[in-house]
Amino acid sequence: MEEQLPRQSKKVLVKKEMIYRVPQITSSLDKDAYAPQFVSFGPYHRGTEALRSADKYKWFFLEQILNMNKDVPLKKYLEEMDGVKQKVKGCYEEDIQMETNDGIQMLLLDGCCILGFLGILPLPPQEVGAQTQKQDNLVAEASTVQKFISRVNKMLARTVRKFLSRDNIMGKKTHDLLLMENQLPFFVLQKIYELATAGTPLFLKDKVDLTIQKLLASYPLITTDQSFHHLLHCCHLKFRPAMANSSSSNSKPKANSSSSNSKPTDDLQPWRGATDLYKAGIKFKRKKRNASESLLDVELVSGRTLMIPTLIIEDSTSSVFRNLIAFEQSSTHENYFAAYAFFMGELMRTPGDVTLLVKMGVVENYIGADKEVSDFFNSLVKRVVFDVNGKHFLSSTFEELKSSYNSVGNKYIADLKQNYCGSPWLVISVVAAAIVLVCTVVQTVFAVIKK
Q1: Range of the domain at 91
Q2: C-beta neighbour count of 208 within 10 angstroms
Q3: Is residue 251 part of a domain?
Q4: What percent of the chain has pLDDT over 70?
Q5: Same domain, 35 and 155
Q6: Which range has the worst mean pLDDT, 178-192, 224-238, 383-397, 418-432?
Q7: What confidence category does residue 140 fall into, taking pLDDT thresholds of 50, 70 and 90?
Q8: What is the pLDDT of residues 388-412, one digit of tens each?
Q9: 226 lies in some domain
Q10: Do residues 428 and 402 both lie within one domain?
């Protein structure tokens, strides 16, 4: 017990850089959203039989990296991995074996494969000239091709998006790169990249940030200059609301699951959906993309207009959202995404709510019937420990919406607009009726005076 005590007690310490397992009670809600479909990275899913066929890509990208810098032999890469193995071991929640050659080989192969799948490896010197010539030949065609693609995308946007989100290799790679249990510490990638680029000035962090931006092009994201511990952490930073990024970087985030006031959102009663809010006079408008704002930057303007960045719901949405929430729940990072998911879930309580938001351009649904979207959001925050009534970045918006909904004046005005001013003819009828009423009152007053 004395030998086990130091190692076992450290497991309960919450670390920002730790790579955790998704709790079984959470993963049981949607196992496919948390499990790799194509390739494993790191120790948690290493050796899974269904993923072995992708190992050939790991060896392919290792060879490509070795060819980048002929002055650095394979032995040097293995020595560097051996040098960081203890640090890597401390980055995982579970005890992992890193002392063997197999563990060191895993770090190198998986790191090379991640760099390869991200598409940020520089070309070997002998290929640069050929690639440059090839690009020059394509320049003349680019303008015409681009115009054609633009027209096709406008005509077939929905069909193309559905095709791209199907169960293909590209979709699987994107899915697997952003799984909570499928992460490799970023410093491992940095070590490999430094050797491959011969110690030239490194911009790996910026390249990864830009690549994540491309992988998640459907969502409004910000560019971050903050350091991150792995790819999912980088993804989380890019979704952070502008309000959070403007706050002091020295402020310490709150631990999510340790709050005594926190309780599972299953126990919270929903208040109002989009349809009820709309009937009470709340407007919904699509918020234009802004480089300094992310998907989470919801804004209530003048207490009456809810500005929401367009939420595109496609096949990959479940995996991205669920893993970001699981990441927040298992670390000391703020519950930004949990708050957003709960907020949007409240707006889309019923299929009718989804239909309204789609009509307003706030939501784009590419997964099927509006009921599927409603069901997804209703299940997204199940078993999530989050105090919706506490302080979070959307708490003031919640309160303002409730106040605006409860305003009697807003309800009467909204009812008048929706029931009596819905068309020009109804407006004319209301005005005519008002004029007749005024004339009747005036006539009655004069009749009384004459008497």
Answers
A1: 14-172+180-198
A2: 22
A3: no
A4: 72
A5: yes
A6: 418-432
A7: very low
A8: 888 899 999 988 888 888 874 455 4
A9: no
A10: no
**What pTM value is reported for the model?**
0.78
The answer on 274 and 142 residing in a single domain is no
Are residues 24 and 164 part of one domain? yes
pLDDT number for residue 345:
93
pLDDT beyond 80 at 188: yes
Tell whether 336 and 436 lie within a shared domain.
no
Confirm whether 26 is domain-assigned.
yes
Number of domains in the chain: 3
**At 364, phi and psi to the nearest 5?**
-120, 120
- Interatomic CA distance for residues 258 and 266, integer angstroms: 18
